[in-house]
Design a protein that fits this description.
This protein is about 40% helix and about 20% strand. The protein has about 230 residues and is an alpha/beta fold. Mean pLDDT is about 80; it is low at about 1-25 and about 220-228.
Length: about 230
């Protein structure tokens, strides 16, 4: 199931991209070949530079010392580089389903001098190579509309979250809340999915939004007095 339809996407470049690269129901959309190079140079490298800086600033203020951050659908790795510059103590990993994007992200991380603290891996959002409850913050920036199926993706993203960890999904404003909310409810029970406007945006009519969810913290076990 695609996350939303072509008529809801609206943007002519997005429609063209989906027509060229979408592989059918249940299969994730990848950015490969010349499109990946164009995305790196134009879209991520120029148009979204300020966006990635804002997200990295917010993430850097949230994650505890020595914490772990996972960037899903990392693309050219701009968020990885920006966050690594701000928080040298974090363990940061980016994953992408496109081998071309992984290669580009590795190059960008290396050129930024962050190879020793940032890892980029080829992985599917619906089958992440990470242990349960091992990540403090999971971020997905403009990759949710590429997922072939929502529930398996959200299930994996929440599986790797530590108790109290947060999931941030940034995507186009027209993304339907009900699909994501149902997937989060299935994965986290009654934990609500919150939709918030982007912070620091200078665009009067926001083109994107942020959805957040928190994995409930484990309640402290009740202690009993052995002598009672």
């Amino acid at each position: 199931m695609r996350l939303y339809t072509t008529t809801q996407e609206g943007h002519i470049l997005t429609r063209l991209h989906h027509r060229l690269h979408w592989h059918g129901p249940g299969r994730d959309l990848t950015i490969d070949g010349w499109v990946s190079r164009l995305y790196d140079r134009l879209w991520a490298g120029w148009l979204l530079r300020g966006f990635y800086r804002r997200v990295a600033h917010e993430a850097g203020a949230l994650v505890p010392p020595g914490g772990t951050v996972l960037d899903v659908g990392t693309g050219p790795g701009m968020f990885l580089v920006e966050l690594a510059h701000r928080r040298g103590d974090l363990r940061i990993t980016g994953v992408d389903l496109s081998s071309d994007m992984v290669t580009i992200a590795e190059r960008n991380v290396r050129h930024a001098g962050q190879s020793d603290r940032v890892e980029v891996r080829l992985a599917d959002v619906a089958s992440l190579p990470f242990a349960d409850a091992s990540i403090d913050l999971v971020v997905a920036t403009f990759s949710a509309h590429h997922w072939g199926a929502v529930a398996p993706a959200v299930g994996e993203l929440t599986r790797v979250l530590r108790p109290g960890g947060e999931l941030w999904i940034y995507d186009v404003r027209t993304l339907p809340d009900d699909v994501l909310a149902a997937a989060v409810a299935e994965a986290l029970g009654d934990e609500p999915l919150q939709r918030r406007p982007p912070r620091g945006s200078r665009v009067p009519w926001p083109l994107y939004a942020r959805w957040t969810a928190t994995r409930p913290a484990v309640a402290a076990a009740a202690t009993t007095d052995p002598g009672s």
